[in-house]
């Protein structure tokens, strides 16, 4: 089975849109102005890949060599801004709930896609034998943008606090690296990405949480 | 017209002093001790150039190869510290207002100079055809230090919240990149830097703001 | 005198454990879950070296080429998590005070070791003549992990606020760079590391503080 590059690209753009939307929503809630909304939206969408590229010396980072992802994130944020600017009541309405449910699923798809793409980037850069490194590259591609978003917004990163968002990415990354030892095929890539999506959505639905420490 | 390197250097030092001063003032208001004041002052002054150099693999970053900027920032901070330590009443007096007005203008000059210098650095590193990248390099050189300052001080970055500080830098960067397609001359550089200064000062004077979203 | 590589390695592991513990304690106090505790613990332990490697283009950073430090940090955090999860009363007991006193000393040892190792890394990468750079590399190796920990935890970095933690590292780094002009020997390394440890412990014991500015 040979995966069409087109399909990978479409999935990447879906993830970019979902991530940009999550960044824009954080910015709107922090009452940032248009520039802040754009920056948080774009950095959420492409920040993870930028951190990955810095770690392995992919200079300049891919977001600059191939600005289509930045553009997609920018347009997403602009549309959201115009929507909420013209009809601010949308933010408080029942529509927003439906919107966030859809975005939650697209976000999961993005997390899965970015995780396996991050690993592929590491393998192509010649680090296929550094298993810990490429797992890290996959996970940072998936969750790095959200971490940058939260640091810039002055909040404790979401992935440190809630649910098993990052664990979904880690599980898929580990599966993909194990599968890569056997075969470098599209089915390995798709299967691993789907594992991320499945864990992410199930965790969100059943409100899975990691154990913490009860200090009281 | 051939711009003297001396003039560029003097403008850079002016910007360095103004940026270091803004970092030191944030640190003083956060009641940090001498070390914190030095770190925030220096990082505000040279942090933007450091981020730029990391993005394009200028290793080690220019701040280390040419420590005169770090030294200028350090001395600025030290003088401010001694002033406010010996005469703390200065911080509450009417002098501080005049001081901040002057620094506001020097800061605008620094923003303009750093923006065009950041673009020149990208062009010299061979990325002249990556227009999005070099605009980003110019802007990050201009505003990156302030972002690092605010993240380290635990505040939402100023550029995300207020006025059109960053937009001034973006406008000048875009103008300079457009002009560079036609001519690589000092007048292009100066004109673009002056555009930044003008927007920055006018925005500050007339309290221009970008639109936000009214959630109430 | 020829220092056994084993001894350096043991000291590094001691520092890694102490730094990971400090990261985990911050995470526990912020009520982060298991993932957050692991991330803050690991990033505190290896984040300084990662920043150092990025600055000088050591790609990929050493933490990925030699994951034993990440593993040591991970195990430390896991043991702490299980301890506090099973016996949460430990966190409020008199045991925790004794534990933190011991960790304070190990942390000082780690700070000393990481500072001189950071400088050695810079010298080995060919930057021995960039004195400001290698001092910075030593200090960032020592305190960078703690800065990343505090930024991710949403707090003003500890080193900016308190005591002369960073100054101990700076003093030792300067001494080591001066000594390196004369001799590249293990005694220079050990002496400089011990200076860091001594200042760090004395400052902590006598509550030395840097001067600040009294705004009231």
TrEMBL record, chains A, B, C:
Domain Glycine transporter positions: 10-83, 105-179
Membrane topology qualifier: Multi-pass membrane protein
GO terms for cellular component: plasma membrane
Compartment annotation: Cell membrane
InterPro entries the record matches: Gly_transporter (IPR005115)
Keyword Metal-binding found: no
Coiled-coil intervals, chain numbering: none
Stored Pfam families: Gly_transporter (PF03458)
Major subcellular site: membrane
Family indicated by similarity: Belongs to the UPF0126 family.
Protein name per the record: Trimeric intracellular cation channel family protein
Organism: Eisenbergiella massiliensis
């Amino acid at each position: 089975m040979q995966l069409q590059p087109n399909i990978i690209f479409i999935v990447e753009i879906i993830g970019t849109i979902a991530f940009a939307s999550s960044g824009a929503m954080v910015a709107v809630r922090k009452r940032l102005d248009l520039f802040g909304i754009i920056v948080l939206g774009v950095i959420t969408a492409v920040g993870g890949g930028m951190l990955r590229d810095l770690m392995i010396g992919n200079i300049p980072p891919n977001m600059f060599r191939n600005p289509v992802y930045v553009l997609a994130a920018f347009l997403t944020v602009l549309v959201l801004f115009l929507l909420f600017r013209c009809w601010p009541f949308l933010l408080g309405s029942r529509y927003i709930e439906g919107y966030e449910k859809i975005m939650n699923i697209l976000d999961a798809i993005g997390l899965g896609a970015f995780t396996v793409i991050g690993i592929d980037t590491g393998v192509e850069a010649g680090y296929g034998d550094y298993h810990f490194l490429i797992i890290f590259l996959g996970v940072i591609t998936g969750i790095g943008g959200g971490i940058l978003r939260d640091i810039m917004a002055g909040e404790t990163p979401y992935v440190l606090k809630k649910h098993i968002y990052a664990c979904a990415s880690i599980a898929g990354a580990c599966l993909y690296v194990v599968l890569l030892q056997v075969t470098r095929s599209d089915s390995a890539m798709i299967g691993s990405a789907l594992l991320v999506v499945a864990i992410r959505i199930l965790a969100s639905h059943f409100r899975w949480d990691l154990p913490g420490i009860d200090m009281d």
